[in-house]
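Hey all, quick one. A colleague (J.T.) asked me to put the VIB job into the tracker so the inputs and the structure tokens live in one place instead of scattered across chat threads. No bug as far as I know, just bookkeeping. Sequence used:
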Amino acid sequence: MAGLFDRLKTDCSSEWNAYTRHAFVTSMADGTLPQPAFRTYLQQDYLFLIHFSRAYALAVYKAPGLADMRQALAGLKTIMDVEMDLHVELCATWGITKDELEHMPEASETLAYTRFVLESGLRGDLLDLQVALAPCILGYGEIGQQNRAATPHGPMAAAYQRWFGEYASDEYAEAASDFADWMNRTADVYLTEARYSNVRRIFSQATRLEADFWQMGLNAAD
Ligand SMILES: Cc1ncc(C[n+]2csc(CCO)c2C)c(N)n1
């Protein structure tokens, strides 16, 4: 049987495509995305990652065994030690400091998405939480692979190239595939057909919140 991730992607294909092929992504790939859109996205994404780290910390707590605890801890460390640094580095080129980033007002889209993920995990078990986290981790993996050969043009080319470079890397592809395996293994233990409709609802909602997050960036350039 195919793993849970493939099943969810098939069942939520329209939401999934709207997210992974969003105009924000395609215009980043050709370099036409306006700077204010990217800058707003990146600033909000820093706040997103703070709450996403809390969600990973919740996964440590919700883990039923030591192996799952370690897997969640490794994810938490990657976000706090690697991913947040990319944002700090890119924002520094516009003179925005780490401290300013941390204290930016949070957009409704950031609030909605991060608190939805946390709520899904608080209310449910590790599987519900992994499914809420999945569009974020696995979607960026797909976006990176789809745009491996992208050669953005124009004044933002270097920043967009740097961004794609992070998610198109072999290391990232491996981290994403480890996450999919981890979620699929949890599903092998916990998923029942009776539960599936709820799991699918969580995945669909988180995927739609990802598309809204891109849209928030685009709206900032209007
Ligand atoms: C809105 C939004 N969605 C997804 C990611 C990607 N992301 C978030 S945490 C993480 C590391 C997981 O190990 C990755 C790749 C993002 N930055 N912002």
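Adding what we noticed when we looked at it: Residues 45, 48-49, 52, 75, 78-79, 83, 136-137, 140, 175, 210, 213 surround VIB (CB under 6 Å). The chain has eleven helices and no strands.
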